[in-house]
């Protein structure tokens, strides 16, 4: 008399079958292992890139606005920025916008810097004393540039810690030392504390000189526009005033530049940049997760293929079991359990491998790679579901075998 076998019995038989074919079972699980490991690692990589970008943007300051020459159209088309953002604009913003606390005009250029026999091509910035507070930089040794340094166009320079290490690694103090920028010598009066990189640019390897010195000796003054700026950094009186400051600055510059249609400048906040970066990195994370998911699907197809082969090889076993009373549901459950075991164990191994990969990424790269618990469990559930779904076809084929036909092959 036939009876339904219990889940426990089906689990025992499925486990015994898989253990007796260790190599085949291991190779079958390999696709799921690679798929899970890929999803976890790639998602961790994407989230690490997103976190890194957010951390770098937070260094800019929550209340800071950046005013740059050119509009979105010129940026998309790669047109060189116009020189219509001038020092007088920065002065007007400082004097006429009530929601602004400090204004820091800046001119940037790449120049060859020399010390003794070593030379480097680095970013030189002409700035004013307000730069230090607006951009949240701190002085480690010495002092920053003062108003008198700017007014007198002195040959002073403040350098980042990485630049100091490049030129004066073996010396206890670099204050008072001289470096050459272009054709002139500058005295180092200050060393900044580490600030880190922003969008791949190492701020700790930059040099800062008075804005007037930058104009007189490096960039010059445009006969049409005057002192052209690379950009203007503006600190609002508080975080809540950032939107109002952006609106007021835009109106003021439109009036000053006599703009009727499209702006010839752009005002960007940290929040704007953060939204752009978040959208890009989120898209990147989904893309990477999709690539990893393809590996999971391939792993599921591998399980289906191997189990179809297994059904062909185990025709006699299935025939004997049906001959002694096993039902179609019994055969179906056993093969589904085998597929589920393969995908679950493969998912666990793959997840562990992926988490190890994320940990290694965070150790050996600047990316703070991480994966949330939700992502980890979701990946494991998906891998188990894939094994179950792709195991249905072989299980149905096995359960529908005619015992008489199966026994003829004995």
Automatic annotation (TrEMBL):
Q: Which domain of life is it from?
A: Bacteria
A GO cellular component annotation here is: plasma membrane
Q: Where in the cell is it found?
A: Cell membrane
Q: List residues of the MacB-like periplasmic core domain.
A: 25-251
* Bilayer disposition of the protein: Multi-pass membrane protein
Query: What main location does UniProt list?
Result: membrane
Q: Which UniProt keywords apply?
A: Cell membrane, Membrane, Transmembrane, Transmembrane helix
Residues spanning the membrane: 26-46, 286-311, 331-364, 370-393
Checking PANTHER family in the record gives: ABC TRANSPORTER PERMEASE YTRF, MEMBRANE COMPONENT OF TRANSPORTER-RELATED
Indicate what this protein is called per its UniProt record: Possible ABC transporter
What organism is listed for this UniProt entry?
A: Prochlorococcus marinus (strain MIT 9301)
Upper taxonomic classification of the species?
Answer: Bacteria, Bacillati, Cyanobacteriota, Cyanophyceae, Synechococcales
